[in-house]
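Progress note, sequence design subtask.
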């Protein structure tokens, strides 16, 4: 799976709509802590699929641990054609 982070890629912030459009155009999935992407998912449907990390302000190592601990759940979500977003919490 190829990954791309837009954070820090530009001197100027990129809008949520632009990220959404880029993900859709490139058949990518969005992993975020920004709940606005859940709203976009409900408004526009999917693709792209959204994985929302509702974990607060934590270190990147904690984010990585959460993603790795939920790898199978994420794989199943991505393969499921009926689901558009997945919410992961620290306790998952």
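Output:
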């Amino acid at each position: 799976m190829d990954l791309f982070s837009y954070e820090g890629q530009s001197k100027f912030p990129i809008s949520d709509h632009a990220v959404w459009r880029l993900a859709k155009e490139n058949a990518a999935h969005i992993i975020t802590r920004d709940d606005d992407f859940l709203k976009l998912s409900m408004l526009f449907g999917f693709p792209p699929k959204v994985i929302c990390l509702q974990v607060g302000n934590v270190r990147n190592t904690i984010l990585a641990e959460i993603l790795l601990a939920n790898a199978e759940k994420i794989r199943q979500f991505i393969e499921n054609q009926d689901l558009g977003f997945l919410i992961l919490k620290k306790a998952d």
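The longest helix spans residues 16-25. Work on this subtask will continue into the next period as scheduled.
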